[in-house]
Amino acid sequence: MKFLIIGQGLAGTLTGHRLEEAGHLVHYADAPEQTAASSVAAGIVNPITGRRFVKSWRIDELIPEAKVLYSQLEQTLGHKFWYDQPLIRTLYNRGDLNDWQARSADPGYPEYMEDQPDPGKIPELTDSVFAYAGVRHAARVDVAGLVQAFRKKLIQENRFQDEEADYAQVPVLLGAVAGAKKGIKSSEDYDHVICCEGWRVRHNPYFRYLPHGGNKGEVLIVKTKAPLLDRMFKHRIFLVPLADDTYWVGATSENHFDDDSPTPANRKFLEDRLAEILTGTDYDISSHKAAVRPTVKDRRMFIGQHPKVPGLWILNGLGTKGASLAPLGSRWLVESILENKDIPAEVNIHRFTSR
Ligand SMILES: Cc1cc2nc3c(=O)[nH]c(=O)nc-3n(C[C@H](O)[C@H](O)[C@H](O)COP(=O)(O)OP(=O)(O)OC[C@H]3O[C@@H](n4cnc5c(N)ncnc54)[C@H](O)[C@@H]3O)c2cc1C
Does the predicted TM-score (pTM) go above 0.85? Predict the structure, then answer.
């Protein structure tokens, strides 16, 4: 079958890869001049989140699924994308420590929670803290590197169109308008069109009815003169080691914003938080970036077929956890299209009615 995917961020990339693996032809339309969340994300996979130290939704399934898919892509594209990286987080006071210890006794938690982790060089770099805790099975996915490497392959194979989708053409692309002039160079109609536009899906007239949110995040990329850390550290913000003595520092979180550009105020916020972590270490700020996370009010992905347009699908709403959610989300979507399997009700777009 022949597919068109609108948007080649993480959602579009993983969906297209699965379809190609199943022997199908996949074309993409993406407007790359827009900032994609996938190009700004650290790609942290964090099984224990929030102040209440709760296990991430379906994390026991998500991690094995993600490891298999990213490792397949590593082989296909010849790059490394998945990094097992311990995560150390600060416990700020006795209450935190008590909560952490109580939670780590709950069924299903001990394999993810460590009371006395090895903090590596963290105590040498930071002011002393009340205590450290360790999150096991944490990892980092090089989401930006994956999207770029996949795009390079698509361009080489002439399957990538650098253009904004023209939604008025969707019925034509799907062959629903007999004899109509096609908007995209193709000798045949597409069997399916899949929408993966991240936060900008709000401009898609077919899926605008879904309750899309948006959460803007800003980050700094800093470079140090010598290696600092070999593990991820969370102390109000995350400090994540990348390659070549470079670190991802972030992120801010805003539900109300004017645009998706970086702001001086948020840069200052991040610099101040970083100064609290790296006391006495020199670093240069190499970049300051912003993007919008595609969030959903009920914090579950949007997966499914448009209720009135057969062949038109969506994978969106990856929110703050795309690196871990997208592998399983893309499988549910692809198995529904190819094998007519049910999409779990909690992520199926049919939980919302179209107007
Ligand atoms: C600051 C920040 C930090 C984050 N950190 C993490 C993290 O540590 N771990 C984690 O798991 N997740 C993280 N995330 C979330 C993660 O980035 C997202 O969940 C995920 O990348 C969303 O992928 P997506 O493909 O749905 O959207 P996007 O990456 O936004 O991709 C959408 C693509 O669609 C294209 N597009 C949009 N509209 C059109 C159109 N009309 N026509 C053609 N193309 C179009 C865009 O150009 C873009 O390329 C972070 C996000 C941000 C902003």
Answer: yes
